[in-house]
Amino acid sequence: MAFWDNFKKSTVDSVKDQVNTVKDTTNSAVFKAAINPFIRKYGQILAFKIDSKDKAFLMEIMLKGEFEPIRVEIDKYEFIQKDEKSYVKFHSLHASRYWMDTLMELMLLEKEFELPKELNKPIQTFM
Known about the structure:
Elements: H1 2-39, E1 43-51, E2 56-63, E3 70-82, E4 85-95, H2 98-107, E5 112-114, H3 120-124
Antiparallel strand pairs: 1-2, 2-3, 3-4, 4-5
């Protein structure tokens, strides 16, 4: 019986992983499209990849005035709902540029930020 139980568990886990991958790919595209209008003044998100299992995401951003994209890794995030408003809190993050890494740690780490109302629907898919 242990073989059958292990087989069922591994099959269910595999299906869950596949569903999460499809969900993360879809959500990545939706979130990229939703965020780009808000940062258009500063640049553009070229790539956005979500890992909902580990509560992490990766972005490549082309900022105006830069010659190469900047890689931003959010190693641990949290979405918070309060009074019909959405907030994001970053617990661990890194950037490919030292100055941006330092600035993000100083200004973003462990602080809650209210997100625009337009992002409420895409965020609901993460929670």
